[in-house]
Write a structure and sequence with these properties.
Elements (H helix, E strand, L loop, with lengths): L11 E2 L4 H13 E4 L5 E4 L7 H4 L19 E4 L9 E4 L4 E7 L4 E2 H11 L8 H19 L8 E8 L4 E10 L8 E8 L3 E6 H5 L8 E7 L7 E12 L20 E4 L6 E2 L2 H4 L5 E2 L3 H10 L3 E7 L2 H10 L10 E3 L3 H12 L6 E5 L2 H10 L4 E4 L18 H4 L1 H16 L5 H7 L3 E6 L5 H10 L12 H7 L7 E9 L2 E12 L4 E7 L8 H15 L4 E7 L5 H9 L3 E6 L2 E7 L11 E4 L14
Parallel strand pairs: 1-4, 14-17, 14-19, 17-18, 19-20, 21-28, 24-25
Antiparallel strand pairs: 2-7, 2-13, 3-6, 4-5, 5-13, 6-12, 8-11, 8-13, 9-10, 9-12, 15-16, 21-22, 22-23, 23-24, 25-27, 26-27
Helix pairs in contact: 14-15
């Protein structure tokens, strides 16, 4: 429920991606009952009403109160049948969501009915009436709470960032009684994908009496101006009794294989304190340099999250020959959880693939609370990294050059930002070349590694063993295995993709590709070439099996974007098909080079 409403525009409609719609529906199925916190727009620096005349950010709403969000709290209509609220908020500086408890437990169907009943009041110019009505209703809800403290299983937050890939937030519960020092606070992150965060109710109840008056606040960390977020359900919930314990929403778990190590500096990479000893006074700890070099050889990216003076820290890393290994270093006096979120956004990698090392228990705890899917280690574990299963990945020519590839990608991103919005023309100017060649013994190890590391663009969620790859070198059933390499005027991407299929039937048994070349028309060029080859061989259509996994939704979307049709067998599996002959938009943007292979037998038509 909302205490204030949209101020500048009528109720908006939005078509959500299928994955987001499914996630919201899943939330509704998982809960049995929920609270109905009345959320309003508030200010982290508020001293109303005196600040209305003193604050340069004061902007009046129609009801006279300060506008903390650019458009108020917008109700978004999606046309979906499931009954969870959807709200869009464009934050202004110091803006935060705030509600008040105690609140009672309401069956989810009744909650949906109450929220629908509120909608007629949420029109332009009726902010004050909606506020008064919402407050009257919340008084009724609070009457339940006195007899139901601790009855909720969790506090659930779901949403997605519209204006950035990852936005860190704090959730705070604090007693209204200012003499009560109790406080519960944790951090969470909303990314571009729909995210569901569950905080156990028992954890909150250990410090906050949920039967007494308290405030609950959701506030973005760091600079808030211009951040735009979709929020779904943000309430206490009780899980449906038919749901098994393991089916309840959980925070993401760390990935099996790590892709990024983020280092603290003082007393972690080096002995000494930089602000006291200076760049030349700190000494790299014994064995740390070997670990950094070993991780780099395996293709593990590395960065820094340090509370230090930026220029001094950069100078110290350069002095000790370590700066070149650290991508997108974040050196400031802000929260380290925010630093990790920025590194993840820059590298376009999930935080579940991150490992963070720090000598301070507070910093480890802060990152662990904000990003429970990050592997957090003490500095004493640094020398064990190369022996950990998360880092058990092969050393290949591509892995040794991965850091350089990401450094070049930063140059590409900078050039793309100045391309005046014409992405296709920018890609043409990049002079992209895709080299397709038959799988060779020399590439077998890289294909194995790529299958282990690729998540988002892995259509069948494949994890090959080395023996699986070796078997494809001598396929006796008419199959073809292809490797894909890509380069442009900025540099070489290396071996970035793999496909395995049967030309005569048109069935692609497998396809996976590095996200480094996603949205660069590489996939269009490859499938245009493959479609022509398979059509000549006699195939009537291209087909591939989609196997749903936790993170491979982008692979399905890639094929749908190429014009394939999904024929779903169930929620987790289906066939993607496209009739031949076929065209692929943008396939001419990327030049394709095919290494010499045996020609395909040409389709023939028998005389009748």
């Amino acid at each position: 429920m909302k205490e204030t409403v949209a101020l500048d525009k009528a109720q908006a409609r939005m078509r959500l991606p299928e994955a987001m719609t499914d996630a919201r529906a899943a939330t509704y199925d998982l809960i049995q009952s929920r609270s109905m916190i009345v959320w309003g727009e508030h200010c982290s620096e508020c001293a109303a009403p005196t600040c209305y005349t003193a604050c340069s950010f004061y902007t009046p709403r129609p009801d006279g109160h300060c506008r903390r969000f650019a458009h108020g709290i917008e109700t978004i209509e999606t046309g979906a049948v499931h009954n969870t609220p959807l709200t869009r908020i464009a934050f202004r500086r110091w803006g935060k969501l705030e509600g008040r408890g105690p609140v009672g437990r309401v069956e989810k169907a009744e909650a949906a009915h109450l929220e629908q009943a509120q909608q007629p009041a949420l029109g332009l110019g009726l902010a004050f009436l909606a506020r008064r009505e919402a407050r009257a209703r919340t008084a009724k809800h609070r009457s339940f709470a006195q007899s139901l403290p601790g009855e909720f299983d969790a506090f659930l937050i779901e949403g997605a960032a519209l204006s950035a890939k990852a936005i860190p937030f704090t959730l705070t519960l604090v007693p209204v009684d200012k003499t009560n020092p109790a406080l519960f606070q944790c951090q969470f992150t909303l990314g571009s994908d729909w995210t569901r965060v569950s905080i156990p109710g028992a954890d909150i109840a250990r410090t906050i009496d949920l039967g007494q008056d308290y405030l609950v606040q959701i506030e973005p960390m760091g600079e808030t101006e211009g951040l735009e977020v979709l929020f779904g359900l943000c309430d206490f919930v009780s899980w449906a009794k038919t749901v098994e314990t393991e089916s309840a929403p959980k925070l993401s778990a760390p990935a099996a294989k790590a892709k990024v190590v983020v280092w603290d500096l003082d007393h972690t990479i080096w002995d000494g304190v930089l602000v006291e000893d200076g760049p030349e006074g700190v000494v790299v700890k014994p064995g740390i340099r070997d670990v950094i070099l070993g991780l780099d050889a395996r293709g593990i990216l590395q960065s820094v999250a340090s509370k230090n003076n930026h220029d001094e820290a950069i100078a110290a890393l350069a002095h000790h020959g370590l700066l070149e290994f650290m991508l997108a270093p974040q050196i400031s006096w802000g929260p380290k959880s925010l630093a990790l979120a920025r590194i993840a956004e820059t590298l376009n990698l999930g935080l579940d693939t991150f490992v963070f090392l720090d000598d301070q228990p507070f910093e480890r705890g802060e990152v662990g609370e904000a990003h429970p899917y990050v592997t957090v280690l003490a500095e004493t574990e640094a020398l064990t990294l190369l022996d950990r299963p998360q880092f058990d990945v092969p050393v290949t020519p591509e892995s040794k050059g991965r850091r350089a590839l990401y450094a070049v990608e930063a140059q590409r991103a900078l050039a793309a930002e100045s391309a005046a919005g014409d992405m296709d023309q920018f890609l043409r100017n990049c002079d992209l070349v895709l080299t397709v060649s038959a799988l060779s013994p020399e590439d077998a190890e890289r294909v194995y590694e790529l299958s282990q590391r690729t998540n988002q663009l892995n259509i069948a969620a494949t994890r090959y063993s080395r023996d699986d790859v070796a078997a494809m070198l001598s396929d006796e059933n008419g199959g073809e295995a292809w490797t894909l390499r890509c380069a442009d005027r900025f540099g070489d991407y290396g071996l970035i993709g793999f496909a395995y299929g049967t030309p005569k039937t048109g069935h692609i048994r497998d396809f996976f590709m590095s996200c480094r070349v996603q949205r660069k028309r590489v996939e269009a060029a490859f499938f245009a070439w493959l479609a022509a080859r398979y059509h000549v061989a006699g195939a009537e259509a291209l087909s591939i099996t989609y196997q749903k996994a936790a993170r491979n939704g982008p692979a399905r979307d890639l094929f749908l974007g190429l014009g394939f049709t999904l024929e779903a067998a169930d929620d987790s599996r289906g066939q993607l098909r496209k009739s031949l002959p076929a065209d692929f938009d943008g396939s001419d943007i990327v030049r394709i080079h095919v290494l010499p292979v045996e020609p395909m037998p040409v389709r023939t038509t028998e005389a009748v």
